[in-house]
Amino acid sequence: MWSAVNTFLVGGFIALLIVWHWGFAVLPLAAALTASVGFLATLGRCQARLDREDLLVLLALLAFAGVWLADVLRSGAWPQPQGGDGRWLPLWPLLAAGLLVWLRGYPPSHRGWLIGLLAATLGAGLIAGYERGWVGLERADNSMNAIPFGNLALLLSALSLIAMLGRLGSSRRRARWLTALLGVAACAGLVASLLSGTRGGWIALPLLAWLVCRSFRPLLPARYLWVAFGGLGMLMSVAVSLPQTGVATRLTLAVDDVQRYFLAGETSTPLGLRLEMWRGGLELFSERPIAGWGEAGLEAARDARVASGDLGRGVSDYDQLHSDFIDTAARRGMLGVTSLVGLYGVPLLLFSRHLRSARRAWRRTLALSGVVIVAAFIDFGLSQSLLRDPRGLAGYLGLCTICWSLLKAQPAPPVADTRGVDTDVPMSVRGVSAS
After folding, report:
1. pLDDT tens, residue order, the chain (435 aa)
2. Which residue in 33, 22, 135, 29 sits closest to 85, CA to CA?
């Protein structure tokens, strides 16, 4: 029963993460309530299912939360995002740690993962198309910040593509309509990202494409990959070429903003302001490299530099420095950076280890999905403080936790089997994989 409930909650969280304004909070809190009731009767069983890898993930979550909460205690201030719905962000990694233990005890079915991806990407694509084509908004955002909306839509698109290719790479009978629908969902998520105008996320596209190709090349005929990426490439070409999408305009403006900043010192443009925030953040970090300025101290120190003319005036209009790494370094110093590296690095290393050893298509799909989630957020965090956004932090913690629980629930093949071919790979491809 508990696994079925968790499947429903997992699917709902993924489906509503960027489709419903409060989806990022309601579903995790519902899962926490479910876990609290279930822990009363199953605590011993959940503990017995944890292994060393689980403990490493839990340690990374607890360390990140601990450093952030210690900074809150030191500075006497909680995060104050402009949207007003992220005050309790430092507690979210603790919630993720508890839910990880619960999901390891009663893992959800992968059906929840697939249904959630379908609903999220198709919903995001429809919303973006409606807002740009019918309402006439400059950037699709679903009444939230366009950056996390576009970045998460791109990530969910990549995860849908991976799920589709994983189904194609399995010898088991699969519902062809679901496989095809995952391909449509991947296109819908990509369209949503393009219509959001989120340029930082587009930089991740070559990296994500390389990871997918490298992982599925031994498992699939080359024509499958050519068709999949050819279709997505054509879709992107159309989006860039059509002036109505605004993609080409956004790219041109980005180049112009960078040139004006470095050649004329112009800080009033979107990218000029971002570059100015990065410069200011690195200077503040160099002054307090160990523990940083704290939640309350960073804004005050930044605004003092603005008042003295050392930074552009527009920098004070933002509640973060538009980079997870720089913002964390300036607020919490090397202690914070170390905890952030652990939050990214531990899951990345563990997912990569499972990807290298995976011999079955479904295990490879889940391991690759985990690698892509972490790699995408590292890229997103270079140009946006996405972990200070409630949907960004909930998305990273939730998707990583769900993917990890699904991967660990899949039994690994016996040691003797790992020397052979993937039993989930079609016979027509096994010769290629073994050669």
Report:
1. 888 999 999 999 999 999 998 999 999 999 999 988 887 776 656 655 788 999 999 999 999 999 999 999 998 888 877 666 667 899 999 999 999 999 998 899 999 999 999 999 999 999 999 998 888 888 889 988 888 999 999 999 999 999 988 888 776 666 788 888 999 999 999 999 988 888 777 777 777 778 887 777 766 666 667 777 777 777 667 666 666 556 666 677 777 777 887 877 777 787 888 889 999 999 999 999 999 999 888 989 999 998 888 888 888 888 889 999 999 999 999 999 999 999 999 999 999 999 988 778 788 899 999 999 999 999 999 888 999 999 999 999 999 999 999 999 866 554 444 333 344 444 333 433 332
2. 22
Backbone angles phi, psi at 155, to 5 degrees: -65, -45
Amino acid at the residue 372 = V
What lies within 8 Å, CB to CB, of 3 at 6+ separation is 106, 107, 108, 109
Give me the amino acid identity at 33.
L
- Decide: 120 and 15 in contact? Cβ < 8 Å: yes
CA distance 414 to 406: 19
| Chain mean position to CA 202 | 13
**CA dist., res. 50 & res. 201, Å (int):** 34
CA-nearest of 206, 96, 193 to 142 is: 193
> What CA–CA distance (Å, rounded) separates 360 from 348?
20
CA gap 197, 290 in Å, rounded: 36
H or E segment to which residue 15 belongs: helix 2-16
Q: Is this prediction's pTM over 0.85?
A: yes
Concatenated DSSP letters for 120-179? Answer: HHHHHHHHHHIIIIII--SS--TTS-HHHHHHHHHHHHHHHHHHHHHHHT-SS---HHHH
Q: Take residue 189 and report the two structure tokens written for it.
A: 């998520």
Number of residues assigned to the chain: 435
- The alpha helices in 203-246, defined as continuous H runs, are 204-216, 222-241
Choose among 341, 424, 365, 328: nearest CA to 158.
365
Is residue 141 within 8 A of residue 149, CB to CB? The reply is yes
- Provide the CA 298 distance to its chain's centre, in angstroms: 26
- Degrees to nearest 5, angle at CA 235 with 233 and 241: 100
